Predict the structure of Putative ABC transport system ATP-binding protein.
Amino acid sequence: MIEPVSPAEEPSAAVPVVRAVNLVKIYQTGGLPVPAVRGVDLRVEPGEFVAVMGPSGSGKSTLVHMLGGLDTRTSGEIWVDGERADTLTESGWAILRRRKIGFVFQFFNLVANMTVADNVELPALLGGSSPRHARERREYLLGELGLSGKADASPAQLSGGEQQRVALARALANQPRLLLADEPTGNLDSRNTRDVLRLLGEVHRQGQTIVMVTHDARVAALADRLITLLDGEIADDGAIASPRRPKPDPDHGPGKVIELRG
Ligand SMILES: Nc1ncnc2c1ncn2[C@@H]1O[C@H](COP(=O)(O)OP(=O)(O)OP(=O)(O)O)[C@@H](O)[C@H]1O
C-alpha cells in the first residue's frame, strides 16, 4: 500500500520558489555607504510571473542579482525553493544556480568563442546532465525557439534577437525552478522584443516561474504581478488586473507552445 504523503513531505507545491526576508544591500563606494536595497520582503510562488519596475537606481538589478547569488547581500535572508541560500559560499551558489536558476540579461552574455549549441549545452553539462541528455535538450530548445539552423554558428554571427533567444534557451537548459531576467528586451528592437516576450509568455504558460526587471510597462504587462521599487524599498506589490498581452506577430504566425519539460 502506498503511504499517504504528509503535508511536510509534499513536493514543493507550497514552498515559494524564492523568498527574501528583510533583504538589505549597502554598497561601499569610496568609503561611503550607498544603500541599494533596504529591507525587502518578497515571496514568489511557483508559476508566478513577477515584473519588477521602478526608476533608475531604485535597486531592481541589485535585488534580482542577489536573488540569484550574483551579488552578495549585506543582511537578510534568501531562500530558493525551500533552501536557505544567503549563507552559501560562492561555490555553493554556483551549484544552486546550476540546479535551480536560469538567468537572462540585457546583453545576452553568450560565450563568444563557443558555438550556439555549446552555449546551450554547457549549463546542462555543468548541471550534471549526461552529454546525450544535454544534446537532446539543446536540440529540443533550439528547435522550439526557431534556431535549429544556427546550432553551429558563433554568437557574433547572430542578430540581437537571435542571441537573446539563444540566451533564453541556455537559461532554460536545466529546467530551472526560477528564471531571473534583467531587462531581457532592453537591447532589442520592437520586433525582437515581441519575439522574446512571446517566448517568455509561452514558458510562463508552461508553468515557469519568472522574475523580470524591466523599464517598459508594455513588457511588464505580460506578467501577472508587478512589484514597484522606490529607493530600494517595495513601494507597491500587486496583481496586474488586466494584463495587456502582446499581440501575435503577423510575420511569425500563431505562437508555438514550448514544452518546458520536453
Ligand atoms: N557595484 C556597485 N557599486 C556601488 N554602487 C552600486 C553598484 N551597483 C549599483 N549601485 C548603486 O545601487 C543603487 C541601485 O542600483 P541598481 O543598479 O540596482 O538600480 P536599478 O533600479 O537596477 O537601476 P537601472 O534601472 O538604472 O538599471 C544605485 O544607487 C547604484 O548607483
Remarks:
- The pocket of adenosine-5'-triphosphate is lined by residues 27, 29, 34, 36, 54, 56-62 (CB under 6 Å).
- DSSP finds seven helices and ten strands in the chain.
- The beta strands are 18-29, 32-44, 49-53, 75-80, 83-84, 101-104, 178-182, 209-213, 225-230, 233-239.
- The domain at 46-72+87-252 is CATH 3.40.50.300 (Rossmann fold).
